[in-house]
Amino acid sequence: HLQRHLGPCVAGASFCQPPSDQEPACSQAVKALTLCLVVAGSLRVKSASAVEAVVDPALRRAKQQLAGRHLSRRQAFSTAASSSIPARAVTRVLVPVANDSEEIETACITDVLTRAGAMVTVASVEKELQVRMSRGLKVVADVFIGDCVGQEWDVIALPGGMPGAERLRDSEDLTKLLKEQRTSGRWVAGVCASPAVVFATHGLLGGSATCYPAPHFKEKIPGGWQDAQAVVDGNVITSQGRVLIIGAGGQLGRAVGQAFKARQWLTFGADAHAAAKAPVTHILAMDSGSAPEDQGRQLVSELQRKLGSERLDAIVNVAGGFAMGSASDPAVVANTRAMVESFVYTSIIAAHAASLALRPGGLLILPGATAAFGPTAWSLPYGAAKAAVHHLVRSLADVETSGLPAGVKTIGLAPQTLDTPQNREAMPDADRGSWASLEEVAEQLETWCADPSAVESGKVYVIRKANSLPATFEAKNPMMFFASNFENS
């Protein structure tokens, strides 16, 4: 990646002897590249001053050696002779991808290993370098899988996704690489469907493993399927993907759970009132009779116990509820408390859980409402609670002060009307062609969680639908939109 962006000077400085007239430029490139490696974690440093301690000796050594011989990456940047700061050997990782491989699993594998200092190569098993991932995202691989045969890889790591895993399974070149990797004792890793579909098919699993917990996958694991986020057996690592759904027992929550499970996520579900209905892998307790702070502690404790050292990829709060009432309604205070508990407290709990268990770069989704973009005199409890959630969305987008992990995005979801049995009963004569289905909303949430780069943090996404066409999801700034609606009204 650095070679492509810094150009031939980096290639000259790092790997070959350059012409003499390029030497000054190469020296600067060495320094720039070293700084990049420090940031990426390939060289361990503890302070800003330590950066210079690494860069200057590396620059001097590279300049001295450039004229004499070819340099390996380790030789060029080793600090053993001039600094007490240790260096790490570069680990070569191969990540094969196919049409319909899972986006988030591919992104997590490549991103995390690159941040750890590995040299990651993405290889296409298709006839083209560009592959279309499971949700339509197009990715351009570095090389074809056939170009990787005969090379030595420290790790070969496979993303999941169906039928992408089947296309990986059917690649002759990848099969040859995996079997050579297994024979040589080097590492192979698989996520989600790949352990069952690829590794088990080609006899690469000698013992226990984990994978997406579908019965037809679990039965393929020869040494027994394990209900764990990650399993290491010999030189084989297998793992699942992870999402927490709050409000998982409600109608939208159940649709969301089904959508994520269909895309092979490991799902954790929590619901204070209907948890038993949640179609999730793991149900987390939230006692409906407990105070919100106790519910939060209970949820976080159980979640951390099940996750261990692992992290969630996304947290989705779709807790539901509705209450009307103007200022003159005798029940307005009680209804307000109920709405705050349903939406505000669950969103605060979700944010707190995110601070402890969400991976950097993950996604947090909170339950907003289109009605909260303007005055709701007819429903003070509902409007006030939803407006508070919109405020949380805006506030949590500032990750520098919000307490969330680096790069986490927070968005709100604001449907107009969802197609539910209750809404059909309450509005029998309404135009249902303008109602978004639970399934299309759930699928969009899964798509965002699979690729958080598709959303803008701090925005509330308004769901609109007309004439039975597919629903649209439009990002709005909640505070500015509220002010505009108020002025227009």
From TrEMBL:
One Pfam family cited in the UniProt record for this chain: DJ-1_PfpI
SUPFAM superfamilies, A to Z: Class I glutamine amidotransferase-like (SSF52317), NAD(P)-binding Rossmann-fold domains (SSF51735)
Protein EC: 1.5.1.34
CDD domains tied to this protein: GATase1_DJ-1
UniProt keyword terms in alphabetical order: NADP, Oxidoreductase, Repeat, Tetrahydrobiopterin biosynthesis
Domain DJ-1/PfpI as annotated: residue spans: 92-241
Single GO cellular component term: cytoplasm
Uppermost EC category: oxidoreductase
GO molecular function, one term: NADPH binding
One Gene Ontology term from the biological process aspect of the record: tetrahydrobiopterin biosynthetic process
Family as reported in the entry's similarity comment: Belongs to the short-chain dehydrogenases/reductases (SDR) family.
Assembly and interaction partners: Homodimer.
Protein name (Swiss-Prot/TrEMBL): Dihydropteridine reductase
